[in-house]
proton-translocating NAD(P)(+) transhydrogenase (Microbacterium pumilum), 99 residues
Amino acid sequence: MDAFALITITILAVFLGFEVVSKVSSTLHTPLMSEANAIHGIILLGAIMVAGQAEDPLALALSILAVLLATINVVGGFVVTDRMLLMFSAKPRRTEVGS
């Protein structure tokens, strides 16, 4: 595939992703984010595989950068998901004093 086809597919995927995510109700955003984090974990594995097979110093540097960015994305996504789930958890009841 040539570069023009890859750029076209990327732009169409961005628009499709924006339209799909904008139609999702707010109650489903947390499970959707968790699924996206799992997909980014696959991207992280791919970046590690590319880094392991890189022979060119530029390819190695770019793959290490991809591993770093994918790791930040996965960890940050799960931290945000955890914080969002804490917002929906039940708060402990207060015990009344003197009763």
